[in-house]
Design a protein that fits this description.
Distance between the termini: 19 Å
Low-confidence stretches: none
Strand content: 15-25%
Shape: flat
Bound molecules: guanosine-5'-triphosphate, magnesium ion
Strand order of the largest sheet: 3-4-5-6-2-1-7
Order of helices and strands: EEHEEEEHEHHHHHEHEEHEHEEHHHH
Structural class: alpha/beta
Oligomer: single chain
Number of domains: 3
CATH topology of the largest domain: Rossmann fold
Number of helices: 14
C-alpha cells in the first residue's frame, strides 16, 4: 500500500462540517478503544475496552486537564463486526464545528492519525466485507440526486452487480477449464461439451455483458444528470425560462440586453431524470472585455452541453443572431423554444420542432418539460433491472467483451486453443477488476480520493 498503513488507528469527523443536531467522530483501528478511553469518562465509570458492543454509553469527553468538553454518547464495534472490519468507536457529540473539531484533536493526540478521504470504506474493502463495486456504491448512495439514482446505488451496494459479475465469471470459468483440459490432454477424448456448445456459452456471456454495457447510458443519466444548456441571443427570456422551470426567481431578469453575464447552473428533476440546467449569457456581438468573458463561459457550455434549449423571442422577427446560434447547435440535441407567447407573434421559424411558452406567464412549460425528458431517452434503451453507473465498470465490461470477441474468432478459425484460453483469461481478468478481486493501489487511490473524509 502506497501511503496508507492499515495498522494505524485513524479518526475523522464523519458528519458534514457545520452546525447540526449531532456530530460524529469515528475512530477505527487496533488502538481505537484505548485511545478514546483516554479522553472519555463514562458515567458508569466503565472503560470502552470492557464495554459491550453496539450499546450506547453515556458520558463526557474531557481534555488533558480533565475538564469536560461535551456530553456525548459512545458506541463500540468490535472487529470484524464493524464498518471497517477493525475495532471502531463512534463518538456522538453536539453537532458544532468547534466541538467536533476539539474532540477530533483530542483523539489525534492519542497516537491516532487523521483518516484520508474514504479510508474507512477502503478498509471495509481491504477487510473483505464489501467488494470494490460495493465500495463505489457507498459514494453513489451519498451522492444520489434522484430516487432512481439512489435505487441503482442501493442495488449495487447490496451486491446485485457483484453477483451478476460473479455468475458471468463462473460461466466463463467452466469454458476455460474445459479448454484447458483439451490443451493439457489433447489426445484424450474429452467431450464435456461440443464445439457448438463452447460457442453458445461464449455468446451467452457476451449477450449478458452487452446488456450491462447498454444499461450504462441510463445509469450515467441517473448518477450524473443531464447537462441542459439554455442558449439564445440577448433578451429573449433565457433567465426568465430558467426561473420558470425552477419555479423561483433564481436568475436576474431585466429588459436590458446582456443582463446575464455569468452562467448559472441549477438542478431540476423531471420525471425521474436529473437535469443540470444552465442559463447562459446571450450570444451576440460583444462590446467590452466583460462581454468577451461572458461569451467564453457560454462557449464552455456550448462544448459540453448534452441538450440545448434554444430560446427565441416569438414577439419579434428572427435575427441573424438567432440563425447563427441555430447553426452552432445544429447536429446536437436541440429543443427550440418560442418564448413570449403571451405577446402578438411576429416570428416565422422553421428550424426543427418548436415548443411555445411564455416564461413570464408560466405557459407551455409542461410541454417543454415533456420534450426535455423525451430527448433524454430518445434513442436510448430503457433497461429494466440492473444498471451500471460508472465508466470504470463500463470500460472493464468492454474489455471483457473485446476479449471474448477475439476468443470467438480464434474458435471459428480453429486457431490454437492456447490463444482461445488466453482470450478467455483476459475476459476473466477484466471482470475480476470490476469487482476488485484484482486491483492496484493506484486504482484504490483514484476511487477513494472521490470520497469525503470520514466515510
Ligand atoms: N411578455 C413577455 N416578456 C418576457 C417573457 N419572458 C421574458 N420576458 C421579458 O424579456 C426581458 C428579458 O428577459 P430575460 O429573462 O432577462 O432575458 P435573457 O435572455 O436572459 O437576457 P440576457 O441575460 O440579457 O441575455 C425581460 O424584460 C422579461 O420580463 C415572456 O414570456 N413574455
Ligand atoms: Mg439572462
Amino acid at each position: 500500500m502506497s501511503k496508507i498503513n492499515l495498522e494505524d488507528t485513524i479518526a475523522a469527523i464523519s458528519t458534514p462540517v457545520g452546525e447540526g443536531g449531532i456530530g460524529i467522530v469515528r475512530v477505527s483501528g487496533p488502538k481505537a478503544f484505548a485511545a478514546v478511553d483516554q479522553i472519555f469518562r463514562a458515567k458508569s465509570g466503565k472503560k470502552l475496552i470492557d464495554a459491550k458492543p453496539l450499546r450506547l454509553i453515556y458520558g463526557h469527553v474531557v481534555d488533558e486537564k480533565n475538564h469536560p468538553i461535551d456530553e456525548v454518547m459512545c458506541v463500540i464495534f468490535k472487529a470484524p463486526k464493524s464498518y471497517t472490519c477493525d475495532d471502531l468507536v463512534e463518538i456522538s457529540s453536539h453537532g458544532g464545528i468547534v466541538v467536533t473539531r476539539k474532540i477530533l484533536d483530542l483523539v489525534l493526540k492519542q497516537g491516532v492519525r487523521a483518516a484520508q478521504p474514504g479510508e474507512f470504506t477502503r478498509r471495509a474493502f481491504l477487510g473483505g466485507r464489501i467488494d470494490l463495486a460495493q465500495a463505489e456504491a457507498v459514494l453513489d448512495v451519498i451522492q444520489a440526486k434522484t430516487d432512481a439514482g439512489l435505487a441503482a446505488a442501493e442495488n449495487q451496494l447490496r451486491g446485485e452487480l457483484s453477483r451478476q459479475i460473479q455468475k458471468l465469471r463462473e460461466d466463463l470459468m467452466k469454458v476455460y477449464a474445459h479448454i484447458e483440459a483439451f490443451v493439457d490432454f489433447p489426445d484424450e477424448d474429452i467431450e464435456v461439451f461440443s464445439g457448438d456448445e463452447v460457442l453458445k456459452r461464449l455468446e451467452d456471456v457476451k449477450t449478458q455483458i452487452r446488456n450491462l454495457i447498454l444499461s450504462y447510458q441510463q445509469g450515467e443519466v441517473m448518477r450524473e444528470g443531464v447537462l441542459a444548456v439554455i442558449v439564445g441571443r440577448p433578451n429573449v427570456g433565457k433567465s426568465s425560462l430558467l426561473n420558470a422551470l425552477l419555479d423561483r426567481d433564481r436568475a436576474l431578469v431585466s429588459e436590458i440586453p446582456g443582463t446575464t453575464r455569468d452562467a448559472l447552473e441549477e438542478m431540476i428533476e423531471l420525471d425521474g431524470v436529473l437535469f443540470r440546467i444552465v442559463d447562459t449569457a446571450g450570444l451576440g456581438a460583444h462590446k467590452d472585455e466583460l462581454d468577451k468573458l461572458s461569451m467564453e463561459r457560454t462557449q464552455h457550455y456550448l462544448e459540453r452541453g448534452q441538450i440545448f434549449v434554444h430560446v427565441l423571442d416569438g414577439s419579434a422577427a428572427a435575427t441573424k443572431e438567432d440563425e447563427e446560434i441555430a447553426i452552432r447547435v445544429r447536429g446536437k440535441k436541440v429543443i427550440s423554444v418560442m418564448n413570449k407567447s403571451d405577446l402578438p407573434q411576429q416570428i416565422n421559424w422553421q428550424d426543427g420542432a418548436l415548443v411555445r411558452v411564455s416564461a413570464k406567464m408560466r405557459l407551455g412549460l409542461s410541454d417543454l418539460e415533456r420534450r426535455l425528458t423525451q430527448v433524454v431517452w430518445d434513442g436510448r434503451v430503457h433497461v429494466e433491472g440492473l444498471t451500471i453507473t460508472r465508466l470504470r465498470h463500463k470500460t472493464a465490461l468492454e474489455n471483457a467483451l473485446a476479449a471474448l470477441e477475439s476468443a470467438k474468432n480464434v474458435f471459428l478459425k480453429k486457431e490454437s486453443l492456447e490463444f482461445l484460453s488466453f482470450d478467455i483469461k483476459t475476459a476473466l481478468t477484466a471482470l475480476s477488476e470490476l469487482i476488485g478481486e484484482i486491483y492496484s493501489e493506484d486504482l484504490l487511490d483514484v476511487i477513494f480520493a472521490e470520497f469525503c473524509i470520514g466515510k
